[in-house]
Predict the 3D structure of the following.
Amino acid sequence: MIDYFLNSAINLKKIPRQGWIEKLDMKNPESVADHTFMMSIMGMLISDSENYNFEKILKMILLHDLAESKIGDFTPHQISKERKLELENQAFSELLDTLPSSIKENYQRIWNEYTKCNSDESKLVHEIDKLEMAIQAKKYEQSGISKEKLRPFYDSAEQEIHHPKLKELFTKMCK
C-alpha cells in the first residue's frame, strides 16, 4: 500500500502555501513540496555542519507537512493550532495505516517528536521551517513584493529562530 502513501505525498506539489496567498494575495506561490525541498537542503547542510542526526532531521522534514497532502495548508488565521494539530494527526495516522508496521512505528515516533517539539532535532526543524519561510519572503521581495507586506514573515522568523547558525543565516540572507 506504499502506492497510496506516494499518491498522497505527490499532492504536495499542487498545494500552494496559504500564507503567501492570504497575506500577499499571490496567485502562484510556492507549493508545500517546494517548501519541503528547500527545508531538506537546509537540513542537510545544517546537520552536516553542526553534527546533528541527518537521517532523523531529513525524515522529520519530509514528514512535517505530509498531512497537508490530505487536509491542505492552513494558516493560524484560518484555524486554531489545536484544531490544525487534530486534523493533521488524523490525516497522518490515515497515511501511516497504509504502510508496513516496521516503517509506520518509526514514522509515528518521528511525527510525535516533531509535533511535541521535545528534542534538539525537532526544535531545529521548527526553526528551519521558519528560516525557509524568511528566505522565500526575501526571494519574493527581490521579485518586487514590498518589504512592508513581507514584514510579518520576517518578524515571525526572527522571533522563532534561536539556533546560532540559523540566526546567522537569517541575518545574512534576510536582513
About this structure: Residues 10 and 42 are 21 Å apart (CA to CA).
